[in-house]
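Narrative summary of target 7.
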Amino acid sequence: MNRSLHWRRSSPIWVVLLLLFCTAPLLGPRSAYAEAAPFNRVRPPRTQSAAIKDTEIVSGELVVRVQPGLALKALGINNDHPAFGALLGQAGTLPAAALSDDTYLVNVGTDAHVADMVAQFAANPAVAYAEPVYRWHLLADRSIQRNSNDPLVSQQWPIAKIQAPQAWDVSVGADSLVIASLDTGVNAHHPDLVGRVLPGYNFVSNNTNTNDDESHGTFTAGIMAAAGDNGVGVAGMCWRCRILPVKVLNNKGEGTNVEAAMGIRWAVDHGARVINMSLGGPHPSQFDHDAIQYAVSKGVVVIAASGNEAYPDNPVEYPAAYDEVYSVGATDINDVRAVFSNYGPYLDISAPGVDIVSSGSEDNLNGYNQYSGTSFASPYVSGLAALLLSINPQLNDKDVLRIISQTADDLGTAGPDDYYGFGRINAGRAAQAVQATLAPAPPATGQAITFPETNHTLAGTFLDYWKGNGGLPVFGFPITEQHPEVTADGSFQVQYLERNRFEYHPEKQAPYNVLLGRLGDTVLKQQGRDWFTFPKAQPGGAGCQFFAETQHAVCGTFLQYWQGHGLNDPKLDAYGRSLQLFGLPLSEPMMETNSSGDHVMTQWFERARFEDHGTQGVLLGLLGDEFEKGSTSPGVPSPAPGTTPPPPPPPSASADCNGIVAPISGGVLPANCVKQGTPVEMNINGFQPNEEIAYWLTGPDGAVHGGTDTINVGATGQTDGLEWDTAKVTPGLWFWVFAGKQSKHQAIIYIKVLQR
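Modeled conformation, tokenized:
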């Protein structure tokens, strides 16, 4: 069946993301452990969408939020404040209904031009914001594929794929866990949902009738909480969890963003721990975002489908793209992204969303059906989140989402990416990880230090380790509190510091009951860099220590630092102490730009990154801070192993063109030394045919400028005509780096800009 509940391409509001009975090209599944400390990915800047047509908004209505301390009369806008005077002279007295203490649904009359009224209200100093009420649409091809009352668990392919039975070995949910379903309502009499549906609210009709008159809401509810092991129909993710139906879509799958935002707040205030929204659209709304921020401020997990419009133009979808929302894309039985599933930097996770069998059908709300869409990937994640909270109710929303991200099966390119996020959920591994969080935390010794620089506290065993093994210079300030976490080596109580991560191992004796995370190794993997392929050293170098285990050498100032620091264990010799603290070297020294924008000589170790900062000496890289925040590079890919550019020569004191490094795998016209304002044209070569190329620019100060972007080379693996306007750049030596995402090949173009 090809089923779609969404608005038109240019529509400004959300849609039920339910689309496409289809398959994607088989790219080949890859299952690998994905370790990632952040729970979601960096969102793109939020911008207003294209012009909105009158047919896409509710005629005569707009949402107005007034500044703090102001209010509108319940039945009309009166001049309670001088700031309203000019506006009222134009708009007159308008009926208004309070949506909250400071936000109103204002009726401006069907003859009014809503866009003009929005502009008038927004320009008034008494108004915080004004926006239209957006209309939703239903577009559907309703051809039924399957309708069976027989047990259908064998047809639920996601159960085995995401290891749901292993999760159910840990827990099948708890009656106290409430999942709010913002949808078309829920059929509380469905045989797989009887006794699982709570009294809800209908924001379409403003009453308590939440019966499903469309079937979409019953279908998503079954994925989240259909009773399992009852010999009937299907099994949901969280068998004993309860569904709180919040009807925000009518029997045509239509509604408004106002109804959705009100539904979010109502769900939070009525006990929801998880909110599922299988709806969305390409236009952001401040009123909706305010409601989502309210939910997150109360510790509620908010999950939304990413969208079903990857083809042809893949728009950014809301609410999935809001920072606070966990965005879910769809995969098929082969672990390949569904061809319809929207993708981008806001995608956090993936889940099954093709050929999904669940409760409810358009022609029989007590029956079953099979549909495809990100609408049905999202409730798998919502059900999993509720299951994890059933195991450990003390987890907060970020803990839950962090664990889901960390335990996912990595798909696509290594590490988080735009097509799969952190990967496809693995319910079994996530449940086992939460079970591990019930282990005791490090014992407190009565000592604690709170650092005002970060407002975090080191205490007990972690504080003892910090003091005894290097303190601030080696570890930096704490940047989190103690919390449970799943790592590539297991599940531990951990605490992040600027330069590393402490892991508590109660089975070991001090000082080994605290171990440092292998963040050097992990961050390299996140950057897509395989240190096994790095250039190796030869033994016997003067002033160097050669490590046969990794075929790398540590020399000069780096060796002095390595030998001068180590674990405080008198039973070990100097070599053993340093090895325990930093681990083995993983690279040779090479020039890199760190997350602070410093271009420094760098050497990677299992548990550290050494950086030579010249007169400041050797400093340890901020691996803990980068990893915990998910910023493992300054917003750009790190240079590929073996092709790292040599350090640029220091800027010449005189305005001449001497000593400029020749281009690597490319060229530049008219010259590599030009005066400000001279346009230059670059060409690059040596890449794979049709390869996607990331590129970035580093300035004379060693900092990366302008972030990163991508281009595609042609069938010959080269391109030319890449233009750069030097009119507004600072004089000095600049260099462009072009990095192939598949080949890891790099082209580097050095250009010196002289002052006019």
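Residues 1-37, 73-92, 137-150, 631-655 have pLDDT under 50 and may be disordered.
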